[in-house]
Amino acid sequence: MGQEPTGTARPPHPQEVRTMSTTTTHHRRPTNQGDHDVRNAWLSMLLLPVVFFGAFLVGEGLIGLLGYPVGDARPPLWAGVLATVPALAVFALPAVLSSWFAARASRRRRDRRGWVPAGILVALAVGFTVLNTVPMGQ
């Protein structure tokens, strides 16, 4: 009776008993809110392709809805302004978003790194505005 049959495992000693948890823990390093805002300012640049095509669709779509041919023909100034202003607003969204995150990072942590992507996006928005409004006045 004192012998164990072969092929069976004997129970572990009480010190060897291991419990398995069904929960998982995530060890995340504490995030610095300034770093988070700077990262979001840079991530705002990823919106550029989307807003470029969105601004094109808004501008050309509004001209088409007003009944003027899209492309070669020159619509009246009022129609051009009516279609261009919303398109410029769509294109400026990433610059506004990035500037907001940059300002928040500067205010919270005195972290000025977020102004780099904000400056790039503001310069692109100004360039886009000039390219789309100067031909209208000619």
Automatic annotation (TrEMBL):
Annotated keywords: Membrane, Transmembrane, Transmembrane helix
Top-level taxon in the UniProt lineage: Bacteria
Keyword Membrane on entry: yes
Name of the molecule in the record: Uncharacterized protein
Region of interest: Disordered: 1-35
Chain ranges passing through the membrane: 46-71, 77-103, 115-134
Record lineage: Bacteria, Bacillati, Actinomycetota, Actinomycetes, Micrococcales
Provenance organism: Ornithinimicrobium pekingense
